[in-house]
Amino acid sequence: MRKIFIDTDALVALNDSSDLLHKKALKILEKISRFGFVSFLSTNVLLETLTIISQKMGKKQAILLLEELRSGKYTIIHPNEKLIFVTEEIFKSIKSKNVSYSDCLSFAVAGACDIEWVFSFDVHFKKQGFKRFGIERVETEKLYKLQK
Q1: What's the CATH code of the domain at 55?
Q2: What is the pLDDT of residues 1-50, one digit of tens each?
Q3: pLDDT per residue as tens digits for the range 81-95
């Protein structure tokens, strides 16, 4: 089973047609669908995404997205104490002030679920050893070759 972690920036780009990455996000999503990935996200991604969509596009759009994310097409991981501990260790180890605690929770969840691919435009995922689908060209091309 191929797994992919979906980050907040990708979900916002997919749902906000005024987002600069909207068209690119739609193209990446189409490719993800063709590869048959199982999609994962975490509670923090759900919280961030719904807040941003509600503020940018309105509560109605946020509720529609919530219903889509809860439809069974996505696996939502709710962190337990062990994942919170791992998150805190990651947060303490990263020197950059630009990597949020929420980012670290996403890294911890993806790592705990043995997910190597992410749908995110955030370079910090790459720095943590994840492969950004549709962004890291060489890695994505390797996956295409495996598909054939």
Answers
A1: 3.40.50.1010
A2: 899 999 999 999 999 999 999 999 999 999 999 888 999 999 999 999 99
A3: 999 999 999 999 999
The answer to whether residue 72 sits within a structural domain is: yes
User: Can you list the pairs that 31-38 forms with residues at least 24 positions away whose Cβ atoms lie under 8 Å?
Assistant: 31/133, 31/134, 31/140, 32/4, 32/119, 32/133, 32/134, 35/2, 35/143, 35/147, 36/2, 37/2, 37/3, 37/4, 37/117, 37/133, 38/1, 38/2, 38/3, 38/4, 38/75
Query: Which of residues 136 and 104 earns the better pLDDT score?
Result: 104
Counting beta carbons within 10 angstroms of the beta carbon of residue 78, is it exposed (0 to 12), middle (13 to 18) or buried (19 or more)? exposed
Considering its fold, how many domains does the chain have in total? 1
Percent of the chain as helix, strand, coil, to the nearest 5 = 60, 10, 30
CA 147 to chain centre: 22
